[in-house]
Amino acid sequence: MPCASPRTRRTCSVIAHRGRDRRCRGHDKLPHHFNRLIERKLGELGGIKSLYSDSFYEPDEFWSIFDKPAYDRLKAKYDPKGRLSDLYRKCVLRE
Question: Are residues 61 and 90 in the same domain?
């Protein structure tokens, strides 16, 4: 499904990945192994994975994608008492 990328103003695609392929039964990788492969490949291609799906980014990787300084400025302005969880905790850690 084509969409417009706000970062680059270029066309992008939406890729869906659901569950494991049958050939992977008994695979010794962690359950999120294939999601991490997708996240890394998207990064190599200049893309990002949407945050409505399960994400497994490490904190440094996540904030390099989602501009932590800009986020921190907005968070301080609109949630000065820190009542809401931060974006990483909410989207990746699911807290």
Answer: yes
Same domain, 41 and 66: no
Per-residue model confidence as pLDDT tens for the chain (95 residues): 344 445 555 555 666 656 555 555 555 666 677 778 888 888 888 877 777 777 888 899 889 888 899 999 999 999 999 999 999 998 888 88
Is the pTM here over 0.70, yes or no? no
Give the total number of structural domains in the chain: 2
Three-state secondary structure of the chain:
CEEECCCCCCEEECCCCCCCCHHHCCCCCCCCHHHHHHHHHHHHCCCCCCCCCCCCCCHHHHHHHCCHHHHHHHHHHHCCCCCCCCHHHHHCCCC
Angle at 38 between CA 34 and CA 41, to 5 degrees: 135
